[in-house]
Amino acid sequence: RTGYVPLTLDSRRFQARWLWRGLPHPTDVGLTSNITGMAWADGSLLVSSQQFFHYISHLTRLNEHDGRQVWSHASDSDSIGGPTVSGDRVWGHRDLESTQHELTSWSLSDGQVQTQASFQGQHPRYFGPAVANGDIVAMGGLTGGLMRADGNNGQFIWQNPFISRNINWTTPAVDAQRA
Q: What is the DSSP string of 152-175?
């Protein structure tokens, strides 16, 4: 996970196709939401966003070619962490309150909630889950743990909430046997 891609791009040839300014703020006219993560899948850009201090967050699917909104799912949570796509689902953390959270999946086609599994943690909104053999591996735990959930039903296969005393983990690197 170095991010290294063996190619060279000429930035002078880039041009913007479209601009998305985010969803409008519920009370402060002119303000928009903050982007908390993005993922690409199936010709779309998936954007998670939050509106500070209003406990409103969104997961929005935008058409990659013209920026048109395909769907947007509003949540009564402080934030939705960076999205991850696996098959026909979008996965992310919903930050419900200081230590209460949910690992949630939404339908990629229409944004409807598919699964929800509660867990305790600190600031999982900063991290997106990873996919391993169709399962979801994510940061979770009050002091920086790790968990694995079934990619079909969202139920936890295992959780280790005390794997580290560090809450500043990132999206886990995974393969078929290790996380």
A: TT--EEEEETTS-S-S---SPP--
CA–CA gap between residue 136 and residue 130 (Å, rounded): 6
Q: Which two tokens stand for residue 67?
A: 């920026």
Q: What pTM was estimated for this model as a whole?
A: 0.80
For 30-73, what is each residue's pLDDT tens digit?
A: 666 677 788 999 899 999 887 766 667 888 999 999 999 999 98
Residues with Cβ within 8 Å of 47's Cβ and at least 6 positions away in sequence, in order, are 20, 35, 37, 38, 58, 59, 60, 62, 83
Strand segments, DSSP code E, in 4-155 are 34-41, 44-51, 56-63, 69-75, 79-80, 84-86, 89-95, 100-107, 113-120, 130-132, 135-139, 146-149
